[in-house]
Amino acid sequence: MQGSGYFTSLTGLWIPCPNTVFIGQNVSINRYVIIDSCDAGRIRIGNNCLIGPYVLIRSADHNFNNPDVLFNKQGHIGGDIIIEDNCWIGGHVTITRNVTIGTGSVVGANSVVTKDIPPHSLAAGNPAKIIRFLI
Hints:
By secondary structure, the chain is mostly beta strands. It has strands spanning 7-9, 21-23, 27-29, 34-36, 42-45, 50-51, 56-58, 60-62, 76-78, 80-83, 88-89, 94-95, 99-101, 106-107, 112-113, 121-124, 129-133.
C-alpha cells in the first residue's frame, strides 16, 4: 500500500492485493473487512473515514458476456472504487466496482452500493439509494 496514510483496524482485515489500494490518514476499519482490488481494479479510501464490520469492497466482477464459455473461464472486469474523505460506511456493506462515494456521505448498514453516491448524502438499501442529503 504505497503512499497510504496512518489507519487503524481491528482483527480480520484482508487486503489481498495491497499494491492497488490507497488508504488515507486517520481511517478506522472495523473487524473482518475485505478490501479486494485484485483482477485489474483499484481502490482509494480518503482521509477520516469509518468503515464498519464485515464490509466488502471489491473492485472487479466476473465477466459473463459469452454464453458459449463457462463463467469460470471468462475472467474478470476490473474497475475503480473511490471513497472520498469523511465517509462512514456501515456494517455489512458491499461496494462494487466503478463506484465513487462522495465526501461526507454515510452508507447505511447492509447496503449494496452499485452506483455513485453524491457528496453529503445518506444512502441505504439493496441497491443503495439516496435517502436524503446531509447538508
